[in-house]
Amino acid sequence: GDSVTQMEGPVTLSEEAFLTINCTYTATGYPSLFWYVQYPGEGLQLLLKATKADDKGSNKGFEATYRKETTSFHLEKGSVQVSDSAVYFCALTTGTASKLTFGTGTRLQVTL
Amino acid sequence: NAGVTQTPKFQVLKTGQSMTLQCAQDMNHEYMSWYRQDPGMGLRLIHYSVGAGITDQGEVPNGYNVSRSTTEDFPLRLLSAAPSQTSVYFCASSYSRGGYEQYFGPGTRLTVT
């Protein structure tokens, strides 16, 4: 079956540091890939997505590139802010359905 | 648009009690789903629906029932609550075709004692 593996957290960074959160996947067919973010006490919201190989999703300074050859979709940001502190989930869907398969989430804590 | 709404926000049940978690969306989305979120396990799919009158099981369906009589509403019923069902429950909706983002509700925090 489909699966998503994310690096374990928590990840603690100083403000303005570079962020990478690794995500790899196993899927049948050609998945669409997503990063969702969950701020404390809230539901999940879409951060960015990519629907085919070599696509780059970007939003709010975050980027991720769909790498079919390495089955990866790593999340990056050049300079994190305290307001980026949240839990980040990598996820995928395959086929024609919208069922999401999630990774376990990575908590990011950014300090001054 | 209100998006995806869930009620209640918090609930405490005793073992064996039943209850219904409500979910509604006003975006005319065909697809709706229920997830539970547990520490260290991400979100796991409980049940989903691709349209009114059509539902199917996800990864962890035991102990839960769903029905979809309208496009807007997708309630989740706990038949006989157990402590293992203590979790945060999220409802989500989207267009059915793959590649479309899912919109999530704010969640219901359920504690079963």
In summary, what is this structure?
With 112 residues, chain A is mainly β. Chain A has strands spanning 3-6, 11-14, 19-21, 23-26, 32-38, 44-50, 56-59, 62-65, 75-77, 86-93, 101-102, 106-111.
Structural account:
The complex is a heterodimer of chains A (112) and B (113). Chain A is mainly β. Chain A has no helices and twelve strands. Chain A has strands spanning 3-6, 11-14, 19-21, 23-26, 32-38, 44-50, 56-59, 62-65, 75-77, 86-93, 101-102, 106-111. In chain A, the strands form three sheets. In chain A, strands 2, 5, 6, 10, 11 and 12 form a six-stranded mixed beta sheet that branches. The termini of chain A are far apart. The mean pLDDT of chain A is 93. Chain B has no helices and eleven strands. With 113 residues, chain B is mainly beta. Chain B is globular and about 40 Å long. Chain B starts with a strand and ends with a strand. In chain B, strands 2, 4, 5, 6, 9, 10 and 11 form a seven-stranded mixed beta sheet that branches. The A-B interface holds A 4, 32, 34, 36, 42-46, 49, 51, 89, 93-105 and B 4, 31, 33, 35, 40-45, 48, 50, 58, 90, 92, 94-102, 104-107.
Properties at a glance:
heterodimer; A: 112 residues; mainly beta; six-stranded mixed β-sheet; four-stranded antiparallel β-sheet; B: 113 residues; seven-stranded mixed β-sheet
How many DSSP-defined strands of chain A?
12
Taking the alpha carbons of the first and last residues of chain B, their distance comes to 36 Å
Number of beta strands of chain B: 11
**Quaternary arrangement of the chains shown?**
heterodimer
Q: Report the structural category of chain A.
A: mainly beta
Number of helices of chain A: 0
The largest contact between protein chains, plus residue counts on each side, is: A-B, 25 and 28 residues
As residue ranges, the low-confidence spans of chain A are none
User: What's the main sheet of chain B like?
Assistant: 7 strands, mixed
Rg from alpha-carbon coordinates of chain A? 13 Å
Distance between the termini of chain A: 41 Å
Shape of chain A: globular
- Helicity level of chain B, as a percent range? under 10%
Helix content of chain A: under 10%
The run of helices and strands of chain B is: EEEEEEEEEEE
Please state roughly what percent of the residues of chain B sit in beta strands, choosing from under 5%, 5-15%, 15-25%, 25-35%, 35-45% or over 45%.
Answer: over 45%
Main sheet properties of chain A = 6 strands, mixed
Gross morphology of chain B: globular
Low-confidence stretches of chain B: none
Radius of gyration of chain B: 13 Å
